[in-house]
Amino acid sequence: MLINASKILMEAPYMLSTEKDVENLDVLDIEYMLEMYDHNPNYVQFIAEVDDQLVGAIDFKNGDNEKIKHQGSFGMTVLPEYRNCGIGRALLESLVDWGRKNQQVEKICLEVMEDNIGAVQLYRSMNFFEEGRKVKGVKMEDKYQDLILMALFV
């Protein structure tokens, strides 16, 4: 996970995290994160492997407070050389199937940069709808992008 984190972020202009954000992570940080997933039935992570190599991941966390724990959001990454191969769709389908079986989760949310047209098309093809926008939600090299807020009721 640590090796692929920086590899994924190197060529991922649409990720909200950067290489700098993960450069200080170590194995203990990953172990702590995995324990959080293990102890909360409404947190989940699915991974995609090709030839025993981690090539993609999707993770979901619901809200911690009583009034918002029926909803949560996810982040997804796929290694650049494995994009446009159906891995993102497979990961997202796994998450949606899990969400439909989960007694607590009713709504899956996401934020996507407006220029990430492929991702927006994927989400729409799976019936996610636009709830709103965070205008100029992302700033990269003095340029702004809106974040599109999307959701799916499961």
Structure in words:
This protein is of the alpha+beta class and 154 residues long. It is 32% helix and 36% strand. It contains five helices and six strands, in the order H-H-H-E-E-E-H-E-H-E-E. Strands 1-2-3-4-6-5 form a six-stranded mixed sheet, with helices on one face. It starts with a helix and ends with a strand. The mean pLDDT is 86.
**Strand order, largest beta sheet:** 1-2-3-4-6-5
Mean pLDDT: 86
Q: Count up the helices.
A: 5
The biggest beta sheet reads:
6 strands, mixed
Ranges where pLDDT stays below 50 over 5 or more residues in a row are none
Class by alpha and beta content: alpha+beta
Shape: globular
What is the number of beta strands? 6
Percent helix: 25-40%
Rg, please?
A: 15 Å
- Percent of residues in β-strands: 35-45%
End-to-end CA span: 29 Å
Order of helices and strands: HHHEEEHEHEE
List the helices and strands and how they pair.
Elements: H1 2-10, H2 19-22, H3 27-39, E1 44-50, E2 53-62, E3 71-78, H4 87-101, E4 107-113, H5 117-125, E5 129-140, E6 143-153
Parallel strand pairs: 3-4
Antiparallel strand pairs: 1-2, 2-3, 4-6, 5-6
In a few lines, what is going on in this structure?
With 154 residues, this protein is of the alpha+beta class. It has helices at 2-10, 19-22, 27-39, 87-101, 117-125, and strands spanning 44-50, 53-62, 71-78, 107-113, 129-140, 143-153.
